[in-house]
Amino acid sequence: MGVEEQRFVLSLFTPTNGKQRQRKKGRSYLTDTLLQSIGALPKGAVFSVFKKHHNREAVEVYNFLINCDDAIFENATRELKEKLNEGLFMYAFSTALLHRKSAAVLPPSWQIAPRQFFSTSHIAASRRKASTPESDHEPDHDNEHDLFLTGTLRDPEFRLAWFREDVGLNDHHWSWHTVYPHKGVGTPPETKNRQGELFYYMHQQMLARYDAERLAVGLMRVLPLQEPDEPILEGYNPHLTDHYGVGQYSARPAGMVLASDFTNPDEPYTIREHKHYINRLEDAIKLGVFIGKDHFNPTVTIDNLGATVEASISSPNSELYGSVHNMGHDLISLITDPDGRYKQSPGPMEDTLTAVRDPVFFRHHKFVDNLFCQHKSRLPPYTKGDLEFANITVDGILVQTKDESEPNVLKTFMEERLVQVQDALFHDADETNPKELPHAKVEVIVNTASHREFEYKLTVTNNSSKEVVGVFRIFLAPRHDELGEPYEPEAQRRLFIEMDKFAETLPTGTPIEISRASTKSSVVRPRVRTHEDLTEQVKQGNHPPDQSTINFCRCGWPSNLLVPRGTAQGMTFDLFVIVTDWRADRVGNLGLGLGTSYCGSKSSQYPDRRSMGFPFDRRLPKKETDKSTKKIDQKIDPPPQKNDIQTLAEDYSNMQATSVKVVFEGKTEAHGYPEVLNY
User: Fold this and answer.
1) Sequence-ordered list of residues with C-beta below 8 angstroms from that of 673, at least 6 positions apart, any chain
2) Spatial contact of 534 and 7, defined as CB atoms under 8 Å apart
3) Closest CA relative to residue 617, chosen from 381, 398, 438, 432
4) Whole-angstrom distance, CA of residue 514 vs CA of residue 511
5) What is the DSSP pairing of strand 19-20 with strand 392-401?
6) What is the spatial order of strands in the sheet that 512-517 belongs to?
7) Which end of the chain is more exposed for a tag (fewer CB within 10 A), N or C?
8) How much of the chain, in percent, has pLDDT values that exceed 90?
9) Active-site residue 650, yes or no?
């Protein structure tokens, strides 16, 4: 069944004799209930999970497909593809396939929907190259027109376009929202274990990483979009279109303000309403209690706060607290045509596949993250008992870059890679014309960041009388702020980036050396299987692993962006490790596989009992002072105590911190034809 099911999934992408393969005509394979609830969103419109009426239709479709009989699954899928809006079908089918007891997988989103990553003109130019003898020639790497660029250096934010527009980063964000749909999965629908907390943590980590990149290029850290009606100083033009290259995502000039007196007729909603919901959320955070339904008023937790901010079905009271996150996306995306009078398409903030590209995405999410921080700041600081692991001593930590002699130096660079875009879920007339060689390799060149492989080398001693299992939590954060001043731990903690988390057995006695390869990080995603990989797998008749037996999903941080890019001179970061008791922290028999830190496990509980981001999610205890030292002369001020993360770590034997340099080597030379992009 596995090979045939995968063959069917791939057939949805393959044009045959100038036309997409059609289902067998005849009776409908859909239920009457489903037929009555779909088709409201027309083809060619931009689908958004942030719009309630779009999402209602998508939920009906993916729950139908999840529970669909194997005997009719293929025909029902083809019928839905014919009837549904393209983006809605892509989201619903992807979500269903991921949660269905299936061995088949979809190719990555940049191959499913290449026009959400590259301009139509850029793809057309690449297609013309592929259909001429010149396609055998190497591209001109000195010609910037080989690269898809959305702006110029006149815009300060363009300095980080390479990060925001990274193919893997945008795929990660879209994939996460298909793994964790906010309207739940199943009948009746349910959200997953700690989904609200994971919503908070995944986006908080995106912000921490983006802030590190901003500091590296001389920009201020992200400022929150605090007031819904304040001017948005950042403009953006995505140069992207719909699946057929017709409707273009709207551009937003710098300095625009959300219109307060216009409402979207499809979903009436005003700035005034938005502010009311924000005020109610802030009141609940201050009181520590939500006003729930049916006289049940739950205590505010990070999990139900995440559910409320996103307005998932687990929100204690979505009617009272609204959908601050989702409607923020919607309002911003409609800023150039809020009531649809000009029939303009929304901006990239409307779509989880394109939102990260826009600088305002991070400003909106910094505002959302500040709500979570208001809650976290009301919690007591971690105590020494929370942080220590008795009898465990971390004697040392360093990083060693592959083929480099100097320790604690990480190397990053930019390189050109190829993205293959000849196969897509939807094709226009030109693309399906046999004369255009639909099976030729159509490749777009991207400029992407990467790093040289490295290892963590740790020395640990277990001074207890019995063997223990420790979980190593490794973080990285910039040492200095925008003015070059060193951070104090409380100001620095929101900048700490989780780099890895893994368990290791610690025998008693002498110190042991532990090496951990960067390629095994719990942050990065499993290797993506492209359309070409899956096609070859089907040709060979290899049965793919049963996805229902795999507990880790396809989302996760792109491996090429694991290390912040740093600077040419070398940017100083603090590398921090804390070891805690895995036998106390572990949930069930779950392990820490690839992608689990930001994406959890696909169908089970989050594998780590600790708060996500521990120990930096809450206020840290202050450095202990030496009470044995007495002041002899009260007129003489004591010397100022050093206050940084390394000094704080000295109070705990199970912690260690050190300085590392991240050196950006610039752009690597292209030797021949660039390699094909994968993660």
Assistant:
1) 138, 139, 418
2) no
3) 381
4) 10
5) unpaired
6) 392-401, 454-462, 512-517
7) N
8) 64
9) no
How many residues are recorded in the chain?
679
Helix axis angle for 167-179 and 86-99, nearest 10°, is 70
Three-state DSSP at 634 gives coil
Which tokens is 113 given?
A: 């929907």
23, 78 Cβ separation under 8 angstroms: yes
Active-site annotation holder among 310, 350, 443, 488 = 310
Secondary structure (H, E, C), 454-476: EEEEEEEEECCCCCEEEEEEEEE
Gap between the Cα atoms of 428 and 233, Å rounded: 36
pLDDT digits (tens, 9 = 90+) for 45-92: 889 999 999 999 999 999 999 999 988 999 999 999 999 999 999 999
Q: What are phi and psi of 578, to 5 degrees?
A: -130, 135
- Rg (alpha carbons) of the chain, rounded to whole number: 26
**Block residue for tokens 């000295």:** 650
pTM of the model: 0.92
Residues 297-304, mean pLDDT to the nearest whole number: 97
User: In sequence order, what are the residues at sequence separation of 6 or more whose Cβ sits closer than 8 angstroms to the Cβ of residue 424?
Assistant: 13, 111, 112, 113, 114, 115, 243, 431
- Angstrom distance (rounded) from CA 529 to CA 537: 10
Pair of tokens at residue 446: 């991207």
400: phi then psi, degrees, rounded to nearest 5: -130, 115
- DSSP assignment, residue 380? P
Q: Are strands 409-420 and 655-667 parallel, antiparallel or unpaired?
A: parallel
Beta carbons of 608 and 587 less than 8 angstroms apart: yes
Angle ∠(94,97,103) on CA atoms, nearest 5: 135
What amino acid occupies position 374? Answer: Q
